[in-house]
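Whiteboard transcription, Tuesday session. T.W. wrote the structure tokens on the left side:
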């Protein structure tokens, strides 16, 4: 039987996009306490089912698909520019395709405006109306107002007119940064992006027997299975190692591993993979916030995700991307790399920063491991000693040296030199992925 919390979430999912809700309304509609309604609405907000906007309220929104994440809704624009809605409030949750800065004559401006655009412009009243009639929303900068006629058109067409006190250049910079951040977020793979969903996952009940495991194992060739209750809550995991030497009539609950290591749907693939190699796991269950099974991730899923990510075109650049772009291979040593200390790699004193150095070292070590033995690796710990400050503009050479390599562990020693002089030393320990 569904809990009150789950019933409220279903109720919210059933609302039309753009419909306003409140704690009192939900409590009255479902005969629950306002405290229960408030907690459920907060969870709905975390799940991107609703959005709360100051001076507007909480409104049902459509959860954006991951492949469309670089597009902003007009409601998000409203939040970014700290604006207020002058008209067309019902169109806040439409998605903008691009924004256009109105810094030209009206006729020329309209050549660049299409339906779904956002026109960023000051107090040019005629431009407001013309853009709305062309199917574009309007963002009025400088804190100016719009005409009553424009507001009427906005309400009729459900296209927002938003006013902000910021100037046009600042607004464009803020929106560009927001889109850029979402492009970076798009690159970060989460467990929910690669998991095998619950509907396709082979699971076992605690009341099943070892004979059931052997039968399923023979049919599927998988090495382990999540163990769940009838409610779907995860209570353990059972693998081939657990059933070795056990009699066929022994129940799964007596041989399974209780309280297994799990991840949530929002855990990054990198973090999940790190847990798997550190703990020596072949699969890891993915659970919901309620502890029910959402699906599983296998070691092969993680490896495929990493390989896929490497083949993806560049989206938004992170600081790590900027650092790695400075790396060049040294011709006289295939394991060594060199780089120039550019402003992005420095601290506030103009010297090579600790963060940039650790990124360069771990990436140089990963490259050396791949050259020595094909496979993926992740750094576990690092010891770094700066002997001298590395100044802006310096050419730095990193020479990794593999000291020890086992099936799961690699120790790499680094010499960091500038103009032939030793400036730093480091030791990094890596964990290996076994295919």
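and on the right, the sequence the group agreed on:
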């Amino acid at each position: 039987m569904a809990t009150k919390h789950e019933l409220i979430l279903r109720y919210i999912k059933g609302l039309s996009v753009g419909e306003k809700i409140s704690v009192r309304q939900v409590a009255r509609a479902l005969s629950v306490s306002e405290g229960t309604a408030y907690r459920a609405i907060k969870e709905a907000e975390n799940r991107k089912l609703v959005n709360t906007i100051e001076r507007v309220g909480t409104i049902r929104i459509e959860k954006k698909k991951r492949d469309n994440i670089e597009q902003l809704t007009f409601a998000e624009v409203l939040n970014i520019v700290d604006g207020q809605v002058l008209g067309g409030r019902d169109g806040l949750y439409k998605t903008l395709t691009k924004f256009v800065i109105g810094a030209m004559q009206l006729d020329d401006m309209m050549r660049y405006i299409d339906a779904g655009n956002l026109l960023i412009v000051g107090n040019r009243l005629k431009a407001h109306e013309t853009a709305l009639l062309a199917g574009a929303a309007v963002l009025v900068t400088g804190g100016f107002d719009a005409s009553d006629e424009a507001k009427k058109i906005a309400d009729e067409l459900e296209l927002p007119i938003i006013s902000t006190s910021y100037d046009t250049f600042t607004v464009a910079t803020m929106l560009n940064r927001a889109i850029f951040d979402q492009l970076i977020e798009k690159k970060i793979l989460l467990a929910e992006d690669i998991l095998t969903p619950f509907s396709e996952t082979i699971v076992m009940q605690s009341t099943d027997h070892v004979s059931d495991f052997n039968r399923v194992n023979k049919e599927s060739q998988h090495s382990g299975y999540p163990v769940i209750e009838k409610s779907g809550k995860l209570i353990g995991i059972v693998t081939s190692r657990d059933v070795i030497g056990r009699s066929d009539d022994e129940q799964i609950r007596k041989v399974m591993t209780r309280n297994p290591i799990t991840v949530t749907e929002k855990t990054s693939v990198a973090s999940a993979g790190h847990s798997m190699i550190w703990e020596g796991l072949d699969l890891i269950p993915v659970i919901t916030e309620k502890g029910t099974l959402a699906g599983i991730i296998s070691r092969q899923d993680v490896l495929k995700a990493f390989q896929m990510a490497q083949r993806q075109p560049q989206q938004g650049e992170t600081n790590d991307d900027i650092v790695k772009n400075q790396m060049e291979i040294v011709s006289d040593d295939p394991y060594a790399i060199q780089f120039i200390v550019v402003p992005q790699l420095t601290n506030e004193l103009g010297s090579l920063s600790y963060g940039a150095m650790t990124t360069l070292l771990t990436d140089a070590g990963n490259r050396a491991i791949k050259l020595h033995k094909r496979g993926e690796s992740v750094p576990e710990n690092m010891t770094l000693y700066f002997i001298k400050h590395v100044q802006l503009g310096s050419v730095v050479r990193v020479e990794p040296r593999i000291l020890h390599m086992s099936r799961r562990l690699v120790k790499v020693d680094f010499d960091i030199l500038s103009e032939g002089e030793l400036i730093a030393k480091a030791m990094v320990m890596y964990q290996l992925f076994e295919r």
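Someone added at the bottom: The domain at 4-60 is CATH 1.10.10.10 (Arc Repressor Mutant, subunit A).
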